[in-house]
């Protein structure tokens, strides 16, 4: 059993009878009596590195704030970043929807704001890209319908293939549609 806690005082460490094994475990990891088979992870004591980032964002105060800042700065293609940003953005949104937030929850909301704003930007960009792609697919389908009439499965399958062409090649192809027969177009793909 692992117990996660944002803070853990020296007195509590002593009162719980915990011990650490820093030669095999990170700073901030303590073990209870062996028969309990349990450990305590003290989030604010964890080393500051990418391996502990996903735990440190669960901390509070400055620990959480710094972890969120680190998270936002990770490379965009980092899958860990994408997943954690989405989770934190949802957490912040859920806090935002609640009434009567405690002081700690208000602080969490402020600390999570950079992650939320970054994720919101990414969602907007994804939406724009999807909209642009859908617009391109619709335009290509309309041009094919205008030239060849109703699209059968063969012509429909060309819509995405044409959209994937480099823009100069795609533009040239679409401008030359009036001069192409159905079989000539199909031969190109």
From TrEMBL:
Origin: domain of life: Bacteria
Name of the protein: DUF4351 domain-containing protein
Originating organism: Microcystis viridis Mv_BB_P_19951000_S68D
Source taxonomy: Bacteria, Bacillati, Cyanobacteriota, Cyanophyceae, Oscillatoriophycideae
């Amino acid at each position: 059993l692992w117990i996660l806690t944002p803070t853990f005082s020296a007195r509590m460490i002593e009162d719980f009878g915990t011990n650490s094994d820093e030669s095999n475990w990170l700073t901030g990891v303590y073990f209870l009596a062996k028969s309990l088979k349990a450990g305590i992870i003290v989030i604010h004591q964890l080393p500051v590195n990418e391996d502990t980032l996903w735990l440190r964002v669960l901390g509070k105060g400055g620990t959480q704030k710094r972890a969120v800042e680190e998270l936002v700065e990770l490379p965009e293609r980092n899958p860990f970043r994408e997943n954690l940003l989405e989770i934190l953005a949802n957490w912040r949104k859920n806090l935002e929807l609640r009434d009567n937030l405690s002081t700690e929850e208000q602080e969490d909301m402020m600390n999570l704001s950079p992650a939320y704003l970054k994720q919101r930007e990414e969602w907007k960009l994804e939406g724009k890209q999807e909209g642009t792609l859908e617009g391109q697919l619709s335009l290509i389908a309309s041009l094919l319908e205008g030239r060849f009439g109703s699209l059968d499965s063969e012509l429909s399958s060309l819509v995405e293939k044409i959209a994937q062409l480099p823009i100069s090649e795609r533009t040239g192809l679409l401008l030359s549609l009036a001069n192409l027969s159905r079989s000539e177009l199909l031969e190109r793909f």
